[in-house]
Amino acid sequence: VEPLASATRALFAAGLLLFIVGTVLSSIFRFASRHPDTSGAGGSTLLGPAIRAWHFENVRPFEDVLVRWNVSPTWISWAQMAVGIVVGLTYANGLIFDSGLLLILAGTLDVIDGRVARRTQSGSPRGAYLDSIIDRYTDTVAYLGIAVYFRDSWVLWAALWALVGGVVTSYARARAEGLGATCHVGLLQRPERYVILGLGSLFSALLEQMFGHPAGQPANVLLMLIVVLLAVLSNLTAVQRVVHVLRQLDGPPPATRP
Amino acid sequence: MTTRDRKGARVTGFFFILLGGGMVLESRAVWYGLLVMAIGAACFLWSFAGSEPRP
């Protein structure tokens, strides 16, 4: 089947954009009117408690089904990995919109496995370890797909730097905890990376279909800007964590701390 | 009596509408994309039929 003509695609993209914005905003407003106090949902600098509570509310029906069917959290982690691999392949093949959507699904599965483990009290060190490894794969494969997509442009280097920043950010925390230090700081942690890259990909693909891109630049300008932003912020987060841990390790050894 | 709000069906429908939309926009599988969108739309619309908010 031939692809749609560009004018039809632009109209279709505009309709999809309206549908997404309308549905999500109406869902958020309805949720906010029913739940004025969401302070118990936790949160971070970029993803506040209200957004997290709204997300939890939307994934709760799936959690309920998984708990009822007694699905192991480990299987949910494996599903996350499978989706992560598909994300890498779709990015590499230029399906930016579906990549963003599937990346958000992978991030959601990452949230669901922990919540199901807590609800069924089936959490274990084995599951936690496997979950961390799968998170790294999902993260890395997505950036690898983006790097392949931008292989003919300078954005390739930004994608690789974003990959490095993401890996070092995670490793800085894992190694610190191995040495008895704590490392819960970080401007751009994994959920934020998933949300920024996922939503950025969705909107980038729609804007590309509606308005195209400047001559001499690769397609998907918004995605390009987001990759550059992630490259900068991920590496800043890695440095922030390293400095935080070094300050702790400069003090007395863990055994002598109060 | 337990009430159901069919939120799962609504979120699933929303997801499939977007997944199909992405296929229509960026791939050659336009008809498959439209089929996925139609399944998603059916799910999304069904979720509003007779749904009651949870207490």
How would you describe what is shown here?
Chain A has 258 residues and is mostly helical. Helix content of chain A is 75%, strand content 0%. In chain A, helix 1 runs antiparallel to helix 7, helix 4 runs antiparallel to helix 7 and helix 7 packs antiparallel against helix 8. Helices cover 71% and strands 0% of the residues of chain B. Chain B has two helices and no strands. In chain B, 38% of the residues are buried. The mean pLDDT of chain B is 87.
Radius of gyration of chain A: 20 Å
For the record, give the distance between the C-alpha atoms at the N and C termini of chain A, rounded to a whole number.
Answer: 69 Å
How would you classify the helix and strand content of chain B by structural class? mainly alpha
Q: Work out the helicity level of chain B.
A: over 70%
Structural class of chain A: mainly alpha
Q: Secondary-structure element order of chain B, as H and E? A: HH
Strand count of chain B: 0
Q: Are there runs of chain B of 5+ residues with pLDDT below 50, and where? A: none
Q: If helices are DSSP runs of H or I spanning 4 or more residues, what is the number of helices of chain B?
A: 2
Indicate the low-confidence ranges of chain A by residue numbers: none
Task: Classify the helix fraction of chain A into a percent range.
Answer: over 70%
Largest sheet of chain B: none
Strand percent estimate of chain B? under 5%
User: In angstroms, what separates the terminal alpha carbons of chain B?
Assistant: 11 Å
Itemize the secondary structure elements and their pairings.
The complex is a heterodimer of chains A (258) and B (55).
Chain A: H1 6-34, H2 49-68, H3 73-92, H4 96-119, H5 125-149, H6 155-178, H7 190-211, H8 221-250
Helix pairs in contact in A: 1-7, 2-4, 3-4, 3-5, 4-5, 4-7, 5-6, 6-8, 7-8
Chain B: H1 7-26, H2 30-48
Helix pairs in contact in B: 1-2
